[in-house]
Amino acid sequence: MTSKNILEIAASYLNSRRISINASFFISTSLKISEKEKYSNAQYFHWDNDFTKFLKLYIYLTDVDCGEGPHIYIPYTHKKKNNLNKLCRLYSDRSISKTYKNKKIFYGKAGSCFFVDGYGLHKGETPYFKTRFMVNVHFGRGKIFYSKNDTFINI
């Protein structure tokens, strides 16, 4: 998370040498869960507003393939959203598929990682075959809005 290369990518994207870092660990189980649990576990499309500008790094700790909870991202929505999706709330797959034709699905082996801008519409797919373990690292410009545990660094 704090390797020189990762920090350089974050600093370049954020246009800042002073950044905030916060990491979370997610376990998404393959057990049947209610719609309410999906709703509270980011398994509906949404966009984040944690910082004035930020970048997310996701690291899969288990292999993730179809049916194993891949991350799904709607390209370019970090820059422009349809008027129906400008509220910071959760959206159904159906409403998103009506509005946006393209989606990026992130599959990968354990240890795979990728960056996304969290202002874009995204979600974690509900896993059906096995539990998914993942680390989510936020790199932000400014102070994260909901956590006192973020770390500030100067690069």
Description:
- The protein has 3 helices and 8 strands; from the N terminus they run H-E-H-E-E-H-E-E-E-E-E.
- It is globular, with a radius of gyration of 15 Å.
- It has helices at residues 4-14, 35-40, 93-99, and strands at residues 18-28, 53-60, 71-73, 104-106, 113-116, 122-124, 132-141, 151-154.
- It has a single domain (4-143), classed as q2cbj1_9rhob like domain (Jelly Rolls, Sandwich).
- The protein starts with a helix and ends with a strand.
- By secondary structure, it is of the alpha+beta class.
Compact summary:
This protein is of the alpha+beta class and 155 residues long. The protein is built from 3 helices and 8 strands; from the N terminus they run H-E-H-E-E-H-E-E-E-E-E.
Q: Identify the overall geometry.
A: globular
Q: Reading side by side through the largest sheet, how are the strands ordered?
A: 5-2-7-1-8
Q: In CATH terms, what is the architecture?
A: Sandwich
- Which structural class is indicated by helix and strand composition? alpha+beta
Number of domains: 1
List the helices and strands and how they pair.
Elements: H1 4-14, E1 18-28, H2 35-40, E2 53-60, E3 71-73, H3 93-99, E4 104-106, E5 113-116, E6 122-124, E7 132-141, E8 151-154
Antiparallel strand pairs: 1-7, 1-8, 2-5, 2-7, 3-4, 3-6
